[in-house]
């Protein structure tokens, strides 16, 4: 068992893996914050989808008026869903990429651009910023993930 623990600590000593862990934590925390932003918008807009949540604002028919959709809540939810569609693949592909032996400077470039693109995408969604800001920030993050996936496949399959 001590041999297994030594391998884990060796991974933590790997600068590329530490960079991955840093930026993965940043974008995962950002994604988690979107849940809080969604809850904030639901409460401040009094727009709930579950009867038990609406019941906290009234009883019977008076609570039913809070069972509704709200454009601001839906905008935040769409941003959060977009995070799920993009950060989850980054999490897996970024790990494989870190383990494929890239140069630290190249890995940092990938990770920083992805994190920056996702943060910009969130601001573009929530403010909202005019298009094509949201679309470009999505495309940049997607391209980074694709680039890392290509590098992994090239390394593993000798493409």
Automatic annotation (TrEMBL):
Top-level lineage group: Eukaryota
InterPro entries from the UniProt entry: MAPEG-like_dom_sf, Membr-assoc_MAPEG, MGST1-like
Keyword set includes Lipoprotein: no
One GO MF term: glutathione transferase activity
Localisation per UniProt entry: Endoplasmic reticulum membrane; Mitochondrion outer membrane
Principal location class: endoplasmic reticulum
Gene Ontology cellular component annotations, sorted alphabetically: endoplasmic reticulum membrane; mitochondrial outer membrane
Keyword Acetylation belongs to the record: yes
Catalytic activity of the protein: RX + glutathione = an S-substituted glutathione + a halide anion + H(+)
EC id: 2.5.1.18
Residue stretches spanning the membrane: 20-41, 84-102
Keywords: Acetylation, Endoplasmic reticulum, Membrane, Mitochondrion, Mitochondrion outer membrane, Transferase, Transmembrane, Transmembrane helix
EC top class, as a word: transferase
Subunit structure: Homotrimer; The trimer binds only one molecule of glutathione.
Known function: Conjugation of reduced glutathione to a wide number of exogenous and endogenous hydrophobic electrophiles.
Similarity remark: Belongs to the MAPEG family.
Record's protein name: Microsomal glutathione S-transferase 1
Organism: Cephalopterus ornatus (Amazonian umbrellabird)
Gene name as annotated: Mgst1
């Amino acid at each position: 068992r001590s041999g297994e623990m030594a391998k884990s600590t060796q991974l933590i000593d790997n600068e590329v893996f530490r960079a991955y862990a840093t930026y993965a934590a940043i974008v995962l925390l950002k994604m988690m914050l979107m849940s809080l932003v969604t809850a904030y918008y639901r409460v401040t807009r009094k727009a709930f989808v579950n009867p038990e949540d609406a019941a906290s604002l009234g009883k019977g028919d008076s609570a039913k008026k809070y069972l509704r959709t709200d454009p601001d809540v839906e905008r935040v939810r769409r941003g959060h869903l977009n995070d799920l569609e993009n950060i989850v693949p980054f999490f897996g592909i970024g790990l494989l990429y870190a383990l494929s032996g890239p140069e630290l400077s190249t890995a940092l470039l990938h990770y920083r651009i992805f994190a920056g693109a996702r943060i910009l995408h969130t601001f573009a969604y929530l403010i909202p910023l005019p298009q094509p800001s949201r679309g470009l920030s999505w495309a940049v993050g997607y391209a980074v993930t694709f680039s890392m996936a290509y590098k992994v496949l090239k390394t593993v399959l000798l493409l």
